[in-house]
Amino acid sequence: MERYTGVIDKYRERLPVAPQTRAVSLNEGATPLVELENLPRLLRRNVRIYAKFEGLNPTGSFKDRGMTMAVTQAVAAGARAIICASTGNTSAAAAAYAARAGIACFVLIPEGKIALGKLSQAMMHGSVVIQIRGNFDDGMRLVQEVAKTAPVNIVNSINPYRLQGQKTIAFEVIEALGDAPDYHALPVGNAGNITAHWIGYSEAVCESTDACAFCAGKCEFRKTKIATRRPIMLGYQASGAAPIVRGRPVESPETVATAIRIGNPVSWQQALAAQKESGGWFAECSDEEILRVQKLLAESEGIFCEPASATGLAGVLKDLELGRIGEGSSIVVTLTGHGLKDPDTAIAHSAKPLTVDAELPAIERVIREHLKR
Ligand SMILES: *Cc1c(COP(=O)(O)O)cnc(C)c1O
Fold this sequence. Notes:
Elements: H1 7-11, E1 33-35, H2 39-42, E2 48-53, H3 63-76, E3 81-85, H4 89-101, E4 104-110, H5 116-124, E5 128-132, H6 136-146, E6 153-154, H7 160-166, H8 168-177, E7 183-187, H9 192-204, E8 232-238, H10 243-246, H11 268-278, E9 281-285, H12 287-301, H13 307-321, E10 330-335, H14 343-348, H15 360-372
Parallel strand pairs: 2-10, 3-4, 3-6, 4-5, 7-8, 7-10, 8-9
Antiparallel strand pairs: 1-2
Helix pairs in contact: 3-4, 3-7, 4-5, 7-9, 8-9, 9-11, 12-13
Residues 61, 63, 89, 157, 187-193, 259-260, 306, 308-309, 336-337 line the site of pyridoxal-5'-phosphate.
């Protein structure tokens, strides 16, 4: 068997990369699809829920799949610097892949509003971190303006190569299950990822080389049909940052799920198209629901995802409760990032550690009392 070397080498014939182009890769992708065993039983639901745990990518989020493509393409085009606006994970991925490629990286982040793990990654990999007194949407606008004059390559998801890399999630799900699931749910911020999932699923059922809405005439890299159907797409937003659910931009988005704290998504129209074509829907979850489900997943299944990532599962559990998702369904939820990204939120919402004297009876008492409960 050949050694696994990342999504570009694995899916090269399905990606807009020339055969001779060397991939800038950290062996991202090939993340586990873990079936939840305890939650459906706890909730008394006859459904199969699978978690696509993207937290196990090299920098801890699905952003690595897009970044390998964007940085490979930037390097192939001779770029010496990349730039992005970020709620955290894009900057972590950009910083790591720029380091790997030996090019400069500039990241614009909202001051005080990114999780500490993500900030530490951007700093550690040696990118230039620029905190702005503004939110993600302000940063996105500035990046687009500065790229008109400065010699920097934008690696936000307006860069089409990002979505091309991210579409590989759909291929991996199909390979693991043998076909598409009934539903695919995920959190929605800038709406690039739901768009990318839909591109992947759409290409997986298509053998045509004609242009369509998703490939815009670039079908030369689409080869074989690997699925018989596409899933119903479910996009979930945080209540304080739910522009697509409400149908209008949110001026000052606010949520504990900082990765999706976005008021004016770049891929809004493409996400709506994916929802409509798939027969799916958008819905919202409150911060309380998001944190409750993050904890529930960690305690009942042993999977620790970041708050934004729990939004997809929180939405699914709510829609199961409401009967919008039927019994007997198979559901894949993309857990977009690792819980270790945001230790502050995790610690704030968990029981405090006990402090006792370093003596045997004290430890025995703790064990006895805990097991009595
Ligand atoms: C980027 C990100 C999202 C949102 O993805 P979009 O493509 O912006 O919709 C969700 N969760 C995590 C952990 C992220 O890093």
